[in-house]
Request: fold
Amino acid sequence: MITNNSVSSILKDVLKSTKKALKKPILQETYNREFSKINGEYNYFADGILEYHIRNNGKKIKSDTYLKQSRTLTSPSKNISEVIEAIPIKYDVKDQIKEGFGDYELLKHLYKREDRYDFVLKTKTYNDSLTHNIIEFKPKDTIINNNNYDGKHLSGNFLFKGKVVYDSTTKLILDLDLQKASNSDKDALYMKNFIITFKYFDVRQKSSYRIDGDKYILVYKKEYHKLHLYKVLGKKYDTEYEFYTSLNTLSYKEFNGKLDRNKRYRNTTIYKNGNQYTINFWENNSILSTEEEEKFINSIQQ
Reply:
């Protein structure tokens, strides 16, 4: 598509529309799960049922998170708790819904630093009545990655490639696929100070949304992180760490009532809550596992 506006400014408007889409408070129930790998081998799996109470106060999206059921399965051959606590992953299970309503820091980076990227705008029409626009992006060939981690959000350091699909009428995001443009050692983010030394190699995000009348819902989200840890508080490591997480929406409804905010979930991962369940909630989940993931789950269950 040819447009009078820059594609980065269009992306900025799309994120604004996404943030305004939440007009009424929503109570959204999700099935979430987490996988962790140390040095190429799975070491834990956790999943749970969560409720997110989401609302828009006009300035920003707020979300209270309640963990209803949780399960943690760990490999008996690995002592992982110390490593898990030391990992500086930019992930928080409490932010998974809130981030989906226009708070994507990684996408904001694209229009804030548009000089670093090439953009292409495409359009696709279905049945002559439904039109989706697609923004594709990748780093310019002349851009060199800054691999000195400044301790702020990853968007200030990584270069990304991917696409954003949005509805041409409502300007709401329908699909997002974003990943680090290069996973080579020279493009890893490197941080070294008196507290921690690590290299951040990769981060990816993928999500899908649904427009349901006047409701706009995040229905699926997946993330992946990979880094190598060398030192934390004077203790040396040589540990490659990978972290996978996914979310699938089970139900949602308008909710103007109040919940007991003292019972909000405070931790960053489901793993930290351990086994706290009253039903086998995982039996009817709709997130498919890979063969490798299923094999690990079965082995630690046994």
